[in-house]
């Protein structure tokens, strides 16, 4: 496992549209996924220990953000042939077992991950109403361990700020996670 860090936020970068199949059997795009006040686009997968460590808190925080008009969409772009735990069928199981309140989409061609310059799982992109990037950073201060008592909920607080002001925080910390498992060229 290789741990990678994401680059800093490129404020104002515009979200790339997509048309991907969700585990719910529906096709999803930016306009369908968008919330009243913004959208979190996150690249995750089923097997990454960083994702597994935050999953219950992630589901909870995203449900809270939805009440503030911030929707979310999760995308798995990993090579499911080499990493069968990341298959579409297993994505459906993870979504059901953890009661995802957001779409979980399969980027089978990996084109969307490339267009976003996604680096790792998890990799979070927080957009305002105009689909301008306002947050690219970590979920919280826990890494892949247990959340400390003084855990800083970076994604939640950043997107709450976006819901209120349409601007993200100036100080952001890179997300850390496992590399996206790219297909051989």
From TrEMBL:
Recorded GO MF terms: antioxidant activity; oxidoreductase activity
Pfam family, one: AhpC-TSA
CDD domains to which the protein is assigned, alphabetical: PRX_like1
Alphabetized InterPro entries for the sequence: AhpC/TSA, PRX-like1, Thioredoxin-like_sf, Thioredoxin_domain
Domain Thioredoxin: 9-144
Domain of life: Bacteria
UniProt-listed PANTHER family: OS07G0260300 PROTEIN, THIOREDOXIN-DEPENDENT PEROXIREDOXIN
Name of protein: Thioredoxin domain-containing protein
């Amino acid at each position: 496992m290789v741990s990678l860090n994401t680059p800093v936020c490129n404020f104002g970068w515009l979200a790339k549209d997509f048309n991907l199949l969700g585990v719910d059997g529906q096709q999803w795009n930016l306009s369908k996924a968008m919330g009243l006040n913004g959208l979190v686009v996150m690249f995750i997968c089923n097997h990454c220990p960083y994702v597994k460590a935050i999953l219950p808190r992630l589901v909870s925080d995203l449900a809270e953000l939805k009440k503030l008009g911030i929707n979310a969409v999760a995308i798995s772009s990993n090579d499911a042939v080499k990493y069968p735990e990341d298959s579409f069928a297993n994505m459906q199981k993870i979504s059901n077992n953890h009661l995802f309140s957001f779409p979980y989409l399969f980027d089978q061609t990996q084109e969307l991950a490339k267009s976003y310059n996604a680096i790792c799982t998890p990799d979070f992109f927080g957009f305002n109403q105009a689909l301008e990037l306002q947050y690219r950073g970590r979920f919280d201060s826990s890494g892949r361990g247990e959340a400390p008592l003084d855990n800083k909920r970076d994604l939640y607080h950043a997107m709450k700020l976006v819901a209120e002001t349409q601007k993200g925080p100036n100080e952001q910390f890179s997300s850390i996670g496992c590399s996206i498992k790219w297909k051989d060229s």
